[in-house]
Amino acid sequence: MRASILPVAGMEKLLKKAGAARVSQDAKEALCEVLEEHALTLGAKAIKFAHHSGRKTVKASDVKLAAKE
């Protein structure tokens, strides 16, 4: 697996919070990979909204708007 930005331990916490009794290492790594891909896509959309508004700074409203799409 490639170097991850998100901690794999956090993936276990998320899956357990969702109701999993046990979580395999493969499941943690898979969730990490999927969430990072989604976050990168979401971030790119948020950046486009910020630029469209004439800003270099990405704000929470840009991220929330990108998430609605």
How many strand elements? 0
Tell me the fraction of residues in β-strands, as a range. under 5%
What structural class do the secondary elements suggest? mainly alpha
Report, as a whole number of angstroms, the end-to-end distance. 30 Å
Choose one word for the global shape: elongated
Per DSSP, the total helix count is 3
| Helix content percent band | 55-70%
Average pLDDT over all residues:
95
Name the helix and strand elements from N-terminus to C-terminus, one letter apiece: HHH
Describe the structure.
Helix content is 68%, strand content 0%. With 69 residues, the protein is mainly α. The longest helix is centred in the middle third of the chain and has 28 residues, at 25-52.
Secondary-structure topology with pairs:
Layout: H1 8-17, H2 25-52, H3 60-68
Helix pairs in contact: 1-2, 2-3
Search tags:
69 residues; single chain; mainly alpha
In short:
By secondary structure, the chain is mainly alpha-helical. It contains three helices and no strands.
